[in-house]
Amino acid sequence: MTATPAIGPAWVRERVGALRATAQSHPNGIIDCNVGTPCDPVPDFVADAVARSVPLSGPYPLSVGSVEYRDAARAWIARCFGVDLARDSVAACVGTKEFVATLPHLLGLVDERFAARDTVLHPAVAYPTYAFGARYAGCRAVEVPLTAAWKLDLDAIDDRDADRARVLWINTPANPTGAVDSRAELERVVEWARTREILVVSDECYVQLVSGAATVLEAGGDGVLALHSLSKRSNFAGMRAGFYAGDRALVGALTDVRRDAGGIVPTPVQAAAVAVLRDDAHVEEQRARYERRRQVVIEACGHHGVVHDGGPMPFYLWLRATDGRDGWQLADRFARAGVLVAPGATFGAEGAGHVRLALVQPDARINEIPARLAAAEQESRS
Length: 382
What we know:
Aspartate Aminotransferase, domain 1, 7-stranded mixed β-sheet, alpha/beta, 15% strand, globular, Aspartate Aminotransferase, domain 2
């Protein structure tokens, strides 16, 4: 394996910008399925929770999260996964992107074992912030090859990279592939890492969108962190609220340095987060929305030689053209139908044959995609 090269944002912006311009030129406008930004409303009760909290927002909120915040997260974990955690095994973060980006750096500050290591292992097709966080910490970002099912291939990790590894990132359910690891698969990853004293961090921000999905916490908290976001399950992206849980000593150490660095979730956001963590009904409704959109697009794509060969997570589709065209060519094909998607190469070289389509447009817009694809194909033939 080789270290992940720096992804030059200039070339990505330029090529995706050209695709955007093509999609925007469609007579009926663009259907933007490029970035995973939820479009649906937050639950109605959120506004009441925020309003009640405003008079109490004078003092600085706790960086670790209020007692109510942490207890709501603990109760949610117990309810969904049957895992009981102590309150000091859970802490708040400002969304999860900042946590992903800063964790490798902070690990070097809180534990000398991690400071002595210079490598971050992450899936070869993945959310780009894993690699960015490694570089931000002055570490090597090393890709872990994936199996045909888009799962980590632990046997492909070079022993020299494992010896130098500070952290191993898992993402389940996965962005961009939609792959979902079973409990047994997560336990195998944890066992592999524990014998090498590598911290396992599982980014699980899509977990409640898949019925019966597992958490890495089921393998125990020692040397393990699970990272959870409210952005996708509750359409909370603009609120910036998440939490991390697991290894009690590490959660405590990270809490201390994150407090000093100013990582604080605002009081009204914490109150809103407590409200959504206590309610499962709105999450079930949101999952059903994504499942409906998923079926519409998969069926439409099937009529035009495009298949989804990722996993069951319904927030993204991981699409491939059966005629062998690469991801950029397929993205251009979508753009000519007025649909903007993300070329798979932007998530790693192994994704070059795919595109990611985020199901983040309202139903009415998603329902336009079949006719648009058909019209674009007809036009290309004439």
